Amino acid sequence: MQDLQHVFPRLRSYILYLLALYVLGWGFTSYKAVFAGLILGTALSLYNLWNLVRKFEQFGQALDEGKKPRSIGTVVRFATAALAVVITISYPKTFHIISVVVGLMTYYVVIIIDLVVQNMRRR
With CB atoms 3.0 to 4.6 Å apart as the test, which of 9, 15, 33, 114 could cross-link to 96 if both were Cys? Predict the structure, then answer.
């Protein structure tokens, strides 16, 4: 498997392309709340991906140095999801809750699709 540090720029660019599409959808359609929710969720998803890569790097360094590794940031990811829900509940006319949740799951889907595509290219 490729090192996460090498994969992260590719995943980040995919997510940024999705964000650009969502911004276009927000600007040119009447589904503003849905696209605003996707933008919010996907932006926080990108933060979660960046945090995950950073935590995995720290985890690997701790193992290499023989130290006890720290957590990989599960609490931070849960807190990010809670923040998204609080923002969505605070502004229900601006953000659509289901699209925020879908946006939060974006980086998982992007990772899986990238893994499948990269495995197909190697064959």
Answer: 33
Between 1-10, 35-44, 47-56, the lowest mean confidence (pLDDT) is in 1-10
pTM: 0.89
Q: Total structural domains in the chain?
A: 1
pLDDT, tens only, 80-108? 999 999 999 999 999 999 999 999 999 99
What is the domain extent for residue 30?
4-122
Dump the DSSP string for the chain: ---HHHHHHHHHHHHHHHHHHHHHHHHHSS-HHHHHHHHHHHHHHHHHHHHHHHHHHHHHHHHHTTPPP---SHHHHHHHHHHHHHHHHH-TTT--HHHHHHHHTHHHHHHHHHHHHHHHHH-
